[in-house]
Design brief:
The chain is α/β, with parallel strands linked by helices and about 240 residues long. The chain contains 9 helices and 9 strands. The protein folds into 2 domains: about 5-50, no CATH class; about 70-235, Glutaredoxin. This is Thioredoxin domain-containing protein.
Length: about 240
Amino acid sequence: MDRAGWTSKLAAAIISGGGIVPFLAGCSEPAIGAAAAQVAEANDEKSSNAGAGSDGAVTPAGPIVRTAAKPITEEYSAKVPPVMLASEHAAICKVNVGEPFPQLELPKIGGGNAKLADLKGAKATVVLFWAPDRWMAEGALADVAKEAATYGGKGAAFVGVVEGAPNDAGQKLINAAGTTLTQLADADGKALAQVGESWLPRVYVLDGQGKVAWFDIEFSEATRRELQQTLAELTK
């Protein structure tokens, strides 16, 4: 009996509930030997193909090693989380930990102009770049406003920089965030271009000297946690 025949009979035995043992018991010894030989042959074939992909290419015997993201700069301090970015994300960041933050001067939402140097906190300054059309903008603004309520009286200042021309969607988010953030307008994107490219919201924490202590691009649960850790350390 060929392999297909044995497979069919074995499948029928299993489906019927008889199991493999009764099935083999009803077979002659030569037949059992033939079946065993066919199983061994199949196993050998499987082993010989284990190292080849579907296109015949040989795959590595061990696990594939992937390079993890590493700190792109020196750590600010042992208690401030290191900035961890993949290389492609690091490439779009123009200001890194330990470097002076650009001296921005932008129109204030509501009228007038403001220099970032005049808005900075004695111990820390949070600068949040955001845009109304980014899906994490609302959550980022709410989180930063929450931290402002906690650390605003401890030497920290909080500034939002909204990207693009003013619109109703942006004003709605600004109103929801409240007055704990000073909001600046970066209508032409030139302020953002000084620190990086795209990837919003992105948040920076500056120390008392105006140097970057920590930052992150986009906004996630990890961003929220590390922002809290950084502020707690700088405002001691």
